[in-house]
Design goal:
Layout (H helix, E strand, L loop, with lengths): L1 H21 L1 H12 L3 H22 L2
Helix pairs in contact: 1-2
């Protein structure tokens, strides 16, 4: 279980690093827009991401 969790965290870090590596200007612009969002908007975005991840896991987990 621990190996699977570490693998998932490592994959997340790789995916998270793609945009700043490939297009730093786009990443900076997105980050600046995120700082102008309200707390409620950020929470909704976080909740949406978590739900999307859970749905993907439920659909594609063996």
């Amino acid at each position: 279980m621990r190996d699977l969790l570490l693998g998932a965290v490592a994959l997340m870090l790789v995916i998270e690093g793609l945009l700043p590596f490939l297009s730093p200007k786009t990443w900076r612009r997105m980050f600046e827009q995120a700082t102008r969002m309200t707390d409620g908007q950020i929470r909704f975005l976080g909740l949406s991401c978590m739900l999307a991840g859970l749905i993907v896991l439920l659909l594609f987990w063996p």
